[in-house]
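[step 3/7] fold_predict: job queued, chain A
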Amino acid sequence: MISTLLIKNYALIDDIKVDFDAGLTIITGETGAGKSILLGALGLLLGKRADLSAVRDASKKCIIEGEFILKRFDLSGVFASLDIDYDSHTIIRRELLPSGKSRSFVNDTPVTLQQLQGIAPFLVDIHSQHETMTVASEKFQMEMLDAVANNNDLLIAYQAAFNIYKEKTELLASLLKKKEAIDKELDYNSFLFNELQEVNLKKIDQLALESELETLQNSEEITEKLSEALQLLSADEIGVIAVLKEVRVALGRIKTISTPFNELWERVQSVIIELEDIDEEINISSQNVETAPEILEQVTEKLQLVYQLQQKHKVQTVAELIEIEAKLGEKIDVTGSLDNQIALLEADKISATKKLDTLSKKLHKKRVDVFPVLKQKLETVLYDLGLPNASFTLSLEVTEAYKNDGKDALQLLFTANKGLQPGLLKKVASGGELSRIMLAIKAILAEYKQLPTIIFDEIDTGVSGEIALKMAYILEQMGGAMQLVSITHLPQIASKGKHHLKVFKKDIDGKTATFIERLTKEDRVKEIAMMLGGQDISNTALEHATQLLK
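[step 4/7] structure written:
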């Protein structure tokens, strides 16, 4: 419940503090006194978008602060899900700064507007004249039906299963989309991969091939020049080696005479040995030079293929081609891996679907079974509220798609008159009828679940006399089990409040301001007498007011 509301520098309010109590609190005041301002401030506190034009003095900070006692509710899970520290005594503060920015705090910890909006529905439920159409929404009607059917535990189980189903479905859709994209490239990637594999890149030495090609292309010239070299080196009598051997013989005859001659002989000997070695290698090379055209063609084709692949993949080396081949292989392997993942997810989705199907059928059955109870309760309350021929019909169809609250599509059909076909609430119910239906639903819900603080803003619109008195009794009964606030212009309803606040305007120093005061028993008699007969209070009005307050 809300225990205190502090408002500073908002609209016509300069600085007020309102204390609230358990039970039914009535708020009255003349039209334009500022009751809507009070609701506007409370809405701002609970996360509505800030309207900076509502700040009374734009040069000063506007502050709205509310204290909430949450001992009757265990909202720790709600707070935790929104990453807000929970306290059974919670203070919420909203500030509008002169700069135009706004700030929100829960127990002095800064929170976002989204976090504030997340906890708001669990704290205060405001029903203004403009929000009565909520009763016509399928979501609201389903929540009502589930409350009466005591479906809370079943819904928790269903929603847990639904979250798993949704997670698996979304992940499966993502993988299928990814696989579709991969499949489009698979053929091309496979072609590229096979093309590279056929070349057997790991066994190709590009530099060696290029050297071999160079040799093959010049084999005739190489053979010719090697032959010339052999002739010059080893020809009989005129070859270099033969001449050097004669030099060696000449020096051999004098090498014992002097050491320098011996050294010269040894050097010539070394040269002869080296040249004979060279001669042997040239001879071998000459014999190894390939001149076959078919070998030249093979090497040329192999190198040409390597060059084409390098150009195609925009690389310079065989090593880079090998790397590309490996990456293409990985891409192809991913397809197989995805297929396995998809198969597992499809199995998980089937399992989740079976569980959802079982739970949704249970929800459907309980909803259908409980509707006669809800119908009887609604029609009984509405009978007391002046709608003796009110009748409800439930249309609950099972849809194909799973939703957050089951597979049911709900239509609550209504007629207020005999002989007329029931229709959708938003089409056939008047504003006054919607207000009474809303009150009836809230009164019924209060029997089945703990509700947050409810604020009714002139829910009595369109009623008077005996019907207003019966509405007042319903509000009084609801107030016996919860905190309820009703803003009203009807004396019948005002008289049933456990507490009574009056909103009024007053001019101070040439400026109009809104104030709120708590009425005493005597003040309440006068206030209700004025509501009955106007500003000129008669004895009859006072007596009537006294009777209503008994």
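[step 5/7] annotate
The chain has a mean pLDDT of 87.
The CA atoms of residues 10 and 361 lie 51 Å apart.
exit 0
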